[in-house]
Amino acid sequence: MKTTLISLVMGAAISVASSASYADVEGSTTYLSHVVTANGAAHYLPVNLSFYASTTGTRAIFFNGECAVQSNDNSTWYDINIEVTSPSGVVTVIAPSNSDNAFCTGKGNGVLGNWSSNETHGTYYASTVGWYRVRVQAQLIGYGAGESVSIDDMSLIVMD
Questions:
Q1: pTM of the model
Q2: CA pair distance 83, 57, nearest whole angstrom
Q3: Which of 2, 5, 106, 120 is 20 to 30 A away from residue 73, measured at CA?
Q4: Which residues pair with 110 in a beta bridge?
């Protein structure tokens, strides 16, 4: 009897300790067509979304895409930055995407190849209730004449 009671209490404790937690998807979008860039200017990708934060707190933001860089050297890469605009208009580029984040690279042989599916993510603290906008800015870093990047199969997800 005592062994059965201890087993029941331990089972209940384990059940409580392992109860499921979950995150809600607050927004998601995809863009499947190719986007080709053949310059070194920063530009926004055609994958963006708005989400309503009904509570304050930290959000996880995920971006993924499949890309390849056509480069003539080994020092050209595609940089991705995730940008969040708050309800008051303050723009924040979230870490770690706010640095020299090499989302994809080339082989340096002048061929658009080496396709890879990649992901970058970060967190953002929604400090007020309201509508937020998320955009993805990209730039071919180290661009030289004749170099380009192609990206497709993109998705952007915000979770609380």
A1: 0.83
A2: 17
A3: 120
A4: none
